[in-house]
Amino acid sequence: MRRYIARQIVQLVVVIFGISILSFGILHVIGDPVLLLLPQNAGKEEFERYRHLLGLDRPLYMQYWSFASRAVQGDFGQSWYGNAPAFRLVIERMPPTIYLTLAGLLVALLIALPLGTIAALKRHSFVDTLCTMVAVAGQALPIFWLGIMLIIVFAVQLRLLPASGYGTWQHFLMPSFCLGAALAPITMRLVRSGLIEVMSMDYIKTARAKGMLEWRVVVKHAFRNACIPVITVLGLQFGQLLGGAIITETVFAWPGVATLTVDSIRNQDFPVVQCAVVLLALLIVAVNLLVDILVGFIDPRVRAGV
Amino acid sequence: MVRPAAVVLAVMLVLGLALSAPALAQTKEDTIVYSLQSDVDSWDPPASVLREAIILGYHAFDHLATRDLKTRKVGPNLATSWRNIDDTTWEVKLRQGVKFHDGTPFTAKDVKATFDRVLDPAKKMTARGNHAKIKSVEVVDDFTARFKTDGPYPLFVERLTAQVMQSEKAMREKGDQWMGENPVGTGPYKLVKWSRKQEHLLVRNDDYWGAKPYYKYLRVRIIPEKATEIAELLSGGVDVIKAVPPDQMDVIDKSGGARTATSPILRTAMLQLDQAARGGPNPFTDRKVRQAANLAVDHDSIIKHVLNGLGDRVATGINPMAFGWDPNLKPYKQDLAAAKKLLADAGYPNGVDIVFNEGPPTVEPAVQQTNDAIVSDMAKVGFRVKRNYIGDNTVLVARVKEGKFGPMFNWSWGYYSVFDADAILYDVFKCGESYSYYCNKELDDLIATGRNSLDAKKRTEIYVKAQKLLYDDAAYLYKWGLRGVWGISNRVEYTAPADEVDRLFLATPRKK
Amino acid sequence: MSAVGAPSGVALGADRVAPMPAPPTGMWWRQLRRLKWGVGAGIVLLVIVLAAVLAPWISPHDPLVVDIRHRLAPPAWMTGGTQEHPLGTDQIGRDLLSRVIYGGRVSLIVGVSSVLLSSTIGILLGLAAGYFGGKVDWIIMTVVNVVLTFPFVLLALAVIAVLGPSLPNMIAVLGIAGWPIYTRVIRAETLALKEREFVTAGRALGMSHLRLIFRQILPNLVSAGVVIATLQVAQVIVLESFLSFLGLGVQPPIPAWGNMLGEGRVYMLNSWWIAAFPGAAIFVTTLVINLMGNALRDWLDPHMKL
Q1: Which of B301, B302, B369 has the CB atom closest to C91's CB atom?
Q2: Who contacts B48 (Cβ-Cβ below 8 Å, separation ≥6)?
């Protein structure tokens, strides 16, 4: 078990390193950050002075080193337009994003688990076909379109829910439903295929032969073992989930990292973009690690090093 | 073995904890909600040119004088009276018994400190241009201040409405950085919490010297998308919104939950052209090109069809409501053939490429749609326009100040709510000013003379000359004077302000 | 051991040692009925593509012509609508039907180009990783893991931040963000194929690596590649419309379904057609591509784990 975790951590370190290089590259690929900062008619000495101040006249690997060493301490520089350290701005907005992502996951599970189960148990029936159709249609519907429609129906026309913003549980309903509904189709198909695979296993037939009630068969045996592939893929879907959260946030003016990132991109506020990308990536990597460890815990086959 | 049920429970627990985050004890009845499309970057009003900063300033601070919205005359506020001692000296008597939010009494030394700070060239305050005619302020006694001006200053009293009084103690003890996040004023509301780019929460100042606001809490929400803002108004999430696009007025009026109100405002819109070459060489340094741009656009049609008539065509940047406006000067009329010829004469027979920088519709209703129409008209004579949209006002203003927003960008000016031609000429047309991309010595001379004279007739003549100059030289692409459009919830009684300063402290609940 | 599906092609020369992939046998009529959804979707997609290609000939108007006198005209079947503008006009009087048709061009160009780019990169790298193994494999897979960590959306946003919004940049971004998916699958398939007889036989015959890869292995991977590519086109179209919706993609006045949705958002409550028709276009296009992709997968290899 320990070796397994160790291997995962090594991979994590490598991935983080890659992310840091990518993010560092962002700022320097654009050419000359100084050009963006200074007014156009600033003299040549101003340019040289700023360049020296920002340390841009040093060799690239030295710049990367100072970027990385400061980043590790949480110093991503000052936001160019926000009057505050980039790190603080991003961290402040992390909790709403995380809560939204979790809420979306919850909704997706609430929709997908029952539907996927029914579809798996009643394979090739009308219900199954219906579920599949709904899933395919659901996958084709753009999330942001769904979000806009939800706002119009529930906030403007019915005045049941707030149109945007953050703060109470009502504010959570539409965005998390939107996100969950966007992810439910894939999740449902996963649950369905996972269950189908498990249900064809021998031990299920044995349990049935022993005279166990069908629902017990499903819950006690099928579910528990279907969990493994479902959790694995869901955990890996965290990245997708976050992607969906990004889209949902912009529609609902959710005060999370995604809206901050989009605004910062529009304003060309690069320190903030850099910081947000790195922190989000770290978050995803951390979750992946957790999921991998969890799966290793549950499924001894994985630990053995398949 | 991890059971799905356990996972679900755990998640719900986390969510529950998250959502039990402290909500302040505000209720719907004691709170009024206002929305801005762009957040301020500082609560230090003289440091910002944004209309949002002016509006917020009116809530946490007071001015020496204010304009009565109904009579449009300037009356006492923190100052109780004023008089000319001589041509270049004004004496102002101050109200007694006024306290800042931190309890310190308001005295003349706060007035002196405020103006010293704003006028200090080292501090580079945006508001400096507004008050540059004031040379110094002296403290005569605790409740009397004397202003020495650089020559006669006819706009002195008007301009008293454009500067908030700030705490000398805060300046001395805390400094600029702190003051940017913690407004210490004498105003009807106090800042409780500022979540950047999300919302401000203010609470009523119960020790306020004047009429106390009805609503105990004021929430100022930042909602960048117009569509979301309107949805919030209609669903009851916001009570007052401004700069409603004329296209959406019918939606609001028919909704049953809110209504619209319009008012002509001082704000005048234009497209600034970089004649002064602040951003480097560009086609608009040539007058022919500027004239071509002005001749290309059919503004009247745009006002009629896109703004539903809610705009007043102007010949230059001077608004019909401002002192010095010349009613005899007729604006450019669309003439596509003449425009094309001018472009060809200027050396662009095959058209010219320009970049157009645009901003969010925070103060100018339907600016995106009107820009669409303008760009399309300009394309008819050969201007190939590449558009660039900046969504954040703070960023936009910073770029303008740094000279990086040319060669053509969207701009409007609210005159700081001072109803005088000087209030736009100095800041937007004078050579070298932060927000001016025009440089013409003749105009500068006219501005200086106009500022210095106390004779209304002479000033009018000067401003007529200035407008003719601006028209002939086609300094910018002139558009129209705006009409403000507000959306107001039906649970609230609120008047649309003609000076474009929303005063939420005057809002009261609507009687059923 | 003899491979299942024994080589139906005899060694006709050094070139043709490998078995051709087994064509779907059986009555093609039965096949067609089984995949009726996919075929129907394919027909609809064909119509969409044709409409986009023939846009200049079938559009009633020029999509860029501004006519503010007739702005916000409703569709022809509503009061106030005219036959002149069957789907109505937008906020500055441009004909909506023409813009929707032309918008299809953008979506298809972006979809096809970026997928061509990402599939080429991804397949090549996957082949290399699977075939050469060792260090090459390790490097490539590490990069794949790093890039796959990021949600597609986040990656796209980050690169747009650097490059700035425009059509060519969009294609580049989506192409650069999308390749890892191919690499993973192609690598796995390559690994499996590497051990098959025809490959070892080819080595024994002295065939060069390149020849082996491109002549023997690649043809067997085409089906996997095609299925992934098809499904990815749909994904890319949705992502492009989201970026344009945010203002970070194709810029107006070039008609793209995404930016039309964004511009029309504020009109949803009265002039709803401005956003509704582009939204419907995105939905229908994505749906038929997904259906076709699923059908392709079922047809070519139902047991493919995708």
Answers
A1: B369
A2: B40, B41, B42, B126, B397
